[in-house]
Amino acid sequence: MQIVVSTIDGNVYPFDVSEELPLNDLKALLSMETNIPQGSLILYHNMQELRERAGGENTLTSLGVQDKDIVVVANRQDVRAPPTTGQTQTLEIKFELPNIDWNPISISQSRLQPAGTAPLPSTEDGLGTQLLGMEPEGLESFDPVTFIQYFLSDSEEMSILRQQNPQLAEAVATGNINTVKQYYKEELMELERERQQLEGLDPMSSEYQERLAENIRQRNIRENFETALEYNPEIVTSRVIMLYVQVKVNGVSVKAMVDTGAQMTIMNTKCAERCNVMRLVDRRGAGIAVGVGRQRIIGVVHMCQVQVGQDYLASSFRVLEDQSHELILGLDMLKRHQCIVDLSKGVLRVGTTGAETHFLSEKEVEELSMAQHKQEERGIIEDEDREIASLIQQSEQEYQERTGEAPPPSPPPQLVPEDDIQRVMSAGFTREQAIAGLRECGGDTQRTIAALLARMFRF
């Protein structure tokens, strides 16, 4: 059978026990669960203390405990005994329960109220509300101005809010009080719906237990996040840059990423062409590279010299068709030359030669990342242009096949005003990008800048 055990401080433990379980065994089990010594542990059922009966059975069923009943656990030291008078002294001391708060137990009053006893105090918020930790303040007590000022005065909290709830962060940044109040009102309504749904469920049902477990999990995550933010904020807010070193391949300078998690040393096709090693690619080594994603390997360069500092190291490369990083120094090369990643000094040390080379600074890595993004953007634009040109050619062929005559000539390119070009270029774009964007957007400079920015941050 299933019983619910509650402590006087509100902790609840569901147990699945046998009907023939002796009372002493139940006490031993609860003593380990609640850390209350077995000799000081008292159990109450239907407002009465559970005691062993001399000469009779002391199983739970014989003591009146039924399926889905509530058993309250208390420490004998926390329960006060009524004072005894000199005229009346008995061997059996009956303990009152003034210190036990029955409110957290949400269950039918008829189950806990024997005949002849006073009704138990009622509670508006039952077991579900207490365990869910739902204590929402009323909308009238919520001050949106204080809420907005709190986030505006703390840049770290504001950055976290932007990640978790961009719409609310935008409302806070613009000082939109109505939007903030509406968001808080919706949160209150959602909490109230959850509370009502939970109170309408059977505490022993699987759905109730699943919701309870999920809320406890979310509460633990929130507490863990708050603890990290309080004691180690750099863990939450810091951004770790990757490790890059400056190397030379066939005399060509390349920024190589050091990746001890990569099994092989990898080079992309553009870097291979720039370093003049495409002629050495063995197509028999083609395959698929599987990691975070899947990329096609077009071949292998079996040996090539890589200059690290003043030393020349032999290495092989897998040439990938579509790879954003030019060169990745993988574990095959790092282990072969016994390389050491020394983070305290910020250097890559080659164990076989003793040479050291410093990792690139954060500024240099950011410049490299921006260059990679621009390169990816150019690749996307080129792909789009090729697709558009292919569609135009296909349309012309279909028109010619359908009508039997050549399509009308395309209109001459539109002339773009120089002032509009300069206005778009002032936003940080090249002249070619400005002209192409203005033609696409019909000469609207604002739309052109917005479209070019969207392409820049497209991933």
List keywords for this structure.
Ubiquitin-like (UB roll); 459 residues; alpha+beta; 5-stranded mixed sheet; Cathepsin D, subunit A, domain 1; 6-stranded mixed β-barrel; 15 strands; 5 domains; elongated
Description:
The chain has 459 residues and is α+β, with helices and mostly antiparallel strands. It has 5 domains: 2-123, Phosphatidylinositol 3-kinase Catalytic Subunit, Chain A, domain 1 (Ubiquitin-like (UB roll)); 130-237, no CATH class; 244-360, Acid Proteases (Cathepsin D, subunit A, domain 1), CATH 2.40.70.10; 361-409; 416-459, Helicase, Ruva Protein, domain 3 (Orthogonal Bundle). It has helices spanning 23-34, 109-112, 127-132, 144-153, 155-164, 166-174, 177-199, 206-231, 233-237, 269-274, 331-336, 362-403, 418-425, 431-440, 445-456; strands at 2-7, 12-16, 41-45, 48-49, 70-75, 244-249, 252-258, 266-268, 287-290, 294-308, 311-320, 327-329, 339-342, 347-350, 356-358. It has a 6-stranded mixed beta barrel. Strand 10 (294-308) and strand 11 form a beta hairpin. Helix 13 (418-425) packs parallel to helix 15 (445-456) and helix 14 crosses helix 15 (445-456). The chain is elongated, with a radius of gyration of 37 Å. The two termini are 56 Å apart. Mean pLDDT is 76; it is low at 82-137. This is UBA domain-containing protein.
By CATH's scheme, which homologous superfamily of the largest domain applies? Phosphatidylinositol 3-kinase Catalytic Subunit, Chain A, domain 1
Mean pLDDT: 76
CATH class of the largest domain: Alpha Beta
* CATH architecture annotation of the largest domain: Roll
What is the number of independent domains?
5
Strand order across the largest sheet: 6-7-12-8-11-10
Number of helices: 15
Radius of gyration: 37 Å
